[in-house]
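Hey team,

Filing this mostly as a record. A colleague (T.K.) asked me to run one chain through the structure pipeline before their review meeting, and I want the input and output archived in the tracker in case anyone asks later how it was produced. No errors, nothing strange. Just documentation.

Input sequence:
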Amino acid sequence: MRISEIFRLVWLNLVQNKSKVILTSIGIVAGSATIMMVLAIGRGGQMEVAEQFKNLNAGAVDVSYESSGDSGRGGGPGGFFMFGFGQRGRDRNQVTLKESDMEDITLFVPGLSDATISFSTNADVEGGTLDSSSSYTIAGVKPNYADLSNLTLAIGDFLTEENEEGKEKVCVLGSRAAKEIFGSAYDAYDGTVYIDSRPYSVAGVIGEMGTVASGISPDDAIFIPYATGIKYLTGSDVSPTITAIAEDVDNVPVIKEYIADTLAGTYPNAEFEISDAGSKMEAASKSNETLQLLLIAMAAIVFFVGGIGIMNVLFVSVKERTNEIGILKAIGCSRKDILTEFLLEAACISFVGAILGVLFGLCITPIIESFSVRVELTVSGAVLSLLFGVLTGSIFGFYPAYKASTLIPVVALNQE
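Output structure:
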């Protein structure tokens, strides 16, 4: 039998059983959509991790002391801001890192290119187009913070050594904070904001940076000189973070040990949290990989169920069409022709299901994104889901097709 005739038989059988084709392909629809979403969510997760950490220095090591009494928490370039909320009573055993500790680390720890100290807290902000005071994250930082954090200015300048030494009331706004307070970065530049009822002149506005590992973005923060923040906002009730930058990323584990030893000399009974950006990136990547593996497992289960459905339907189809198979064999069709016909039917059913699955995936993408899940659809993902669908139908359809091809013509013709 010519291949064109086989295709014609397949087409007639599919057209005459439209509802059966659609119902049979439901499992493939779900599997195809799942595969497409697995790839899209996995790619979206990878891009999200990359964007979250794009501003982190891979050699950054953050040192902080955490206790139940913190009201202002550190936020170094290695992890940006880990913010505390509200004022609480201070722990009598509270250890407060100082600039002298940063200097000791710089002096006694080999292999460092630079270091800085910073803190963050919340304060009421007024000014610009704000109708009432709003709470914003205030970050007290040193002038070298921008370079260590890879921050770029959209307009104006970052904080200077003169601002720090003079404890001047100047600030730099994050891009989103500038838009919320003034309407635009241009309007914010050289303007005035009131932080805790004190006027601060805006020296510059940071370009949009995106989210970071902690889920807090510098776009929402207001940066002020470290000394100014200590004097006017937090006083001694602050828990800053020291961030040291390793010259060689491979030496970060050794540098963390050196930092711990250096601080142990000053604070023998204190336990500090020492973390590096690389570990945070690795943890985030592993979480994303775990999610992707779970989704792949779910897709495999769905495809298996869909394949079993196709197999069952084809077995029923072989039973119903036994006489037809006997007639085809009686007029000269070979076992190969029968096998090819039933395999093509299985492949076509699964292909229809795969196409519907891709369309279904496109439809549910906005719903998934509404749950703050990043979805990055690709053509390759759609093609791969189609291939998986056809492959599933072909694999699970082979045995019924083989059983049909082995029927004996005389027995098949006498089958009621």
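Quick notes for T.K.: The chain has two domains: 3-51+283-414, 66-271. Residues 24 and 310 are 6 Å apart (CA to CA).
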